[in-house]
Amino acid sequence: MHNEYIDYKDGDLVCEAYVAYDDSHKAKRPCVLVSHAWGGQGDFEREKANKLAELGYVAFALDMYGKGKRGTTMEENGKLMQPFMDDRAMLRKRINAALDAAKKHPLVDTNRIGAIGYCFGGLCVLDLARAADPSVKGVASFHGLFQPPGLGKQAPITAKVLILHGFDDPMATPDSMVAIGHELDQAKADWQIHAYGQTVHAFTNPTANMPENGILYNASAANRSWQAMKNFFTEVFA
After folding, report:
1. Do 194 and 163 meet the contact criterion of CB atoms below 8 Å apart?
2. What is the pLDDT of residue 160?
3. Smallest Cα–Cα separation from 84: which of 113, 122, 114?
4. How far is 48 from 54, CA to CA, in rounded Å?
5. pTM for the whole thing?
6. pLDDT (tens digit per residue) in 182-198
7. ∠58-159-22 over CA atoms, to 5°?
8. Closest to 207 (Cα-Cα) out of 44, 49, 24, 50
9. With contact defined as beta carbons under 8 Å apart, do 128 and 102 qualify?
10. How many CB atoms are closer than 10 A to CB 92?
11. What distance lies between CA 203 and its chain's CA centroid?
C-alpha cells in the first residue's frame, strides 16, 4: 500500500490531499474522495482513505481549508467551517478543485469517481452531487448536514446518493432528513437513506464522546454504515 501527500490549488490557495492506493499494479481504478469533518483533514480521514485503498480504490482525502489549516477546538472548527456554510458557491468551487486534482492522478479512472464525507464533509459531498458532474457516479454522506445550497434551480442529479444517518442526530433532525429526500426526488436522483435508531451525530468516530451535545460513537451503526457504503460503491462502479 502506498500513500502520499499531493498539493493542489483552488485559485491561489494551496490545498494538501492525502492519497492512498495499492501500488502493486498500475491499472487505472475508481477513485473515492474523502471529505473531512469540520476540523479539517486529520488522522480519521486518512485512516478511512487507507481502508478504501485496501478495497481497491484510489482514495483522495481532500482539503477544504488549505494546507496546514486545521482546528483543534470546537470554536476553531466552527470558524473554519462557517464561511462555507455562508457561501455555498465557494464550497462547490473548493470541492470541485479537489475533484479536478483527483482526476489528474495517473491511476484514476476519470469516469468512475465517488465521494464520501463525514459531518461537514457529508454536506460537501452532497453539494458535489448537486453540482451534477457526470464523472461523479456516487456519493455517501455519513452523519452529514442537509441544508440545501440555495444556488438557484437544481440541475438533475446524476450521481447516486447514499445517506447514512443517526435518526436522533440533533444537527440534522428527522424533518430535515425527510426534506432532503424530497429535494433529491425533485432532482430526479437515485437515492437512499439508512437511518440508525438510538444513534446521534458523529457515530462513526470512536473518539466522539459528548452525549450531552448529541455526539457519540456507535459501533453498530459505524459497522453497518461502512458495509452499506461498500455495497453501494460495488454497485456504483460496476
Report:
1. yes
2. 98
3. 122
4. 10
5. 0.97
6. 999 999 999 999 999 99
7. 10
8. 44
9. no
10. 18
11. 15
Our CA angle for 233, 237, 238, nearest 5°, is: 115
DSSP bridge partners of 210 = 215
Per-residue pLDDT tens for 206-216? Answer: 999 999 999 99
**Per-residue pLDDT at 133:** 93
Closest CA to 126 of 49, 189, 51, 201: 189
> What are residue 13's DSSP bridge partners?
10
Phi, psi values for residue 76, rounded to 5°: -65, -40
Report residue 223 as a C-alpha cell.
459497522
Task: Read off the C-alpha cell for 48.
Answer: 478511512
Locate 152 and state its grid cell: 438557484
Q: HEC profile for the chain? A: CEEEEEEEEECCEEEEEEEEECCCCCCCEEEEEEECCCCCCCHHHHHHHHHHHHCCCEEEECCCCCCCCCCCCHHHHHHHHHHHHHCHHHHHHHHHHHHHHHHCCCCEEEEEEEEEEECHHHHHHHHHHHCCCCCEEEEEEECCCCCCCCCCCCCCCCCEEEEEEECCCCCCCHHHHHHHHHHHHHCCCCEEEEEECCCCECCCCCCCEEHHHCEECCHHHHHHHHHHHHHHHHHHCC
Residue whose C-alpha cell reads 474522495 in the numeric block: 33
Instruction: List the domains of the chain with CATH numbers.
Output: 2-236 (3.40.50.1820)
- The phi and psi torsions of 100 (rounded to 5 degrees) equal -60, -40
